[in-house]
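Summary of Year 1 activities. Much of the first year was spent building the evaluation harness for sequence design. The harness presents a backbone, in tokenized form, and records the residue chosen at every position. We chose the following record to illustrate the format because it has been used consistently in internal testing since the harness was completed.
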């Protein structure tokens, strides 16, 4: 599609929405079922595209991309009839005697979704599930860094849906810029904080509401009483899944000084068990998405001696799971989100130390705490602000269909997953129905006693 055609596409979708084609519950359920069937049909092609773009294994492709998305659709289909019902307001204040009130759910309209490259299928489709469930139309802009998945999305969506309902626009920066000039009713963006600021600035010019799913340096804290074997395994899994290219991956670890050496020994053992003696040669290891990202990551540890890993292959864009110690906040690796298979490990003695360090930085998207202490858990959760997280595990909180997922501050705005996706793409419209059987004249202030009665009632 030419850039000049984008205006026409937005107008086409707006007309389709305005004539009510997307709104009935039956139609929305039909759309969701068609999407589910389409993904099932295209499963092998999706896996092939993910292999070409990121070298993802069949297991990772299904678990983190295809299967996760199918489960999100089936969960939405099951619960949508309940979610979309009007909410009756049971209580009515005395001064509104005679009225009945309710909250009505309505779709925003024409929505824009700009998707990232790290989970290029899942993070493109899951927000669309909420948009369709609520009755919106969607223009999807996938990442140009994963061209095979982008082409696959174009083929899949165009086979299932008319472009009036969902359209996929591929291309680079110029396509995104042209889209952001349009008037949308809602914008959903997943990506970096830097680009998120650009999205929000463009949306502000149109007063368009946004959800920004960003990232940040998500901390992991391993207290002295933690189960170190499980902590090491779950941290290694959460960090090095998808070659560390996960927005909620543990970005760095604070481990209590008493258990540092034991923890590092255990971590090395778990990395070997998960990825083998030479992960760079492991055919199931996800690669770095581009040469540019690869070079950025390698540069982060070129002047540091890794205690684990540190090997890489420029031809295959593979980097082995790498662990760094003797790290300070002044080093480049701690200046911004790593988004790769590099894990800095620092030590602490008192909880106050790490609380001060973490709270003086931008609020992270996730936080992970490994401890058996209820007191430590309550202290960390009450003193540190973050999007969401786990106690004694990593990243799995985002797979829970009944939990909202989203950031806070610089790590994001808004939330989604399950019911929260439906709510994100839904305007809750307040309605009050007044009786015509009688009228309370005091509201008009026509009598001498009206002022006294109003003062008494509205206290």
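For this record, the design step produced the sequence shown next.
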């Amino acid at each position: 599609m030419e850039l000049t055609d984008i205006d026409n596409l937005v107008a086409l979708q707006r007309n389709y929405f305005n004539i009510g084609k997307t709104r009935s519950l039956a139609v929305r359920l039909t759309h969701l079922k068609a999407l589910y069937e389409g993904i099932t049909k295209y499963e092998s092609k999706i896996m092939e595209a993910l292999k070409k773009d990121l070298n993802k294994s069949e297991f990772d492709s299904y678990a983190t991309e295809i299967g996760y998305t199918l489960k999100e659709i089936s969960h939405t289909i099951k619960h949508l009839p309940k979610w979309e019902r009007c909410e009756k307001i049971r209580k009515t204040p005395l001064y509104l005697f005679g009225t009945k009130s309710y909250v009505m759910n309505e779709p925003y309209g024409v929505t824009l979704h700009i998707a990232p490259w790290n989970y290029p299928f899942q993070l493109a489709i899951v927000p669309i599930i909420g948009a369709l469930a609520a009755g919106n139309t969607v223009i999807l802009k996938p990442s140009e860094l994963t061209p095979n998945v982008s082409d696959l999305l174009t083929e899949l969506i165009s086979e299932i849906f008319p472009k009036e309902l969902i359209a996929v626009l591929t291309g680079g920066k110029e396509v995104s810029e042209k889209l952001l000039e349009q008037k949308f009713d809602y914008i959903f963006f997943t990506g970096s904080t830097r680009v998120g600021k650009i999205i929000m600035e463009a949306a502000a010019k149109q007063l368009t509401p946004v959800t920004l799913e960003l990232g940040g340096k998500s901390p992991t804290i391993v207290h002295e009483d933690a189960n170190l074997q499980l902590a090491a395994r779950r941290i290694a899994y959460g960090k090095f899944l998808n070659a560390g290219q996960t927005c909620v991956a543990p970005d760095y670890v604070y481990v209590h000084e008493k258990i540092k050496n034991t923890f590092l020994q255990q971590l090395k053992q778990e990395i070997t068990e998960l990825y083998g003696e030479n992960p760079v040669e492991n055919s199931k290891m996800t690669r770095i998405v581009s040469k540019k990202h690869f070079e950025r990551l390698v540069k982060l540890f070129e002047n540091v001696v890794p205690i684990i890993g540190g090997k890489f292959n420029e031809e295959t864009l593979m980097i082995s799971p790498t662990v760094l110690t003797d790290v300070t906040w002044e080093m480049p690796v701690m200046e911004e989100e790593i988004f790769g298979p590099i894990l800095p490990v620092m030590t602490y003695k008192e909880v106050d130390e790490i609380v001060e360090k973490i709270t003086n930085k931008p609020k992270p998207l996730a936080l992970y705490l490994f401890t058996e202490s209820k007191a430590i858990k309550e202290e960390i959760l009450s003193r540190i602000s973050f999007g969401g997280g786990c106690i004694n595990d990593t990243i799995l909180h985002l797979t829970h269909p009944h939990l909202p997922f989203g950031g806070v501050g610089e790590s994001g705005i808004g939330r989604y997953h399950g019911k929260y996706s439906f709510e994100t793409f839904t305007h809750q419209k307040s309605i009050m129905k007044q009786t015509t059987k009688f009228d309370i004249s005091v509201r008009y202030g026509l009598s001498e006693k009206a002022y006294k009665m109003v003062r008494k009632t509205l206290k």
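The chain has two domains: 3-214+410-430, 219-405. Quantitative recovery figures across the full test set are reported in Table 2.
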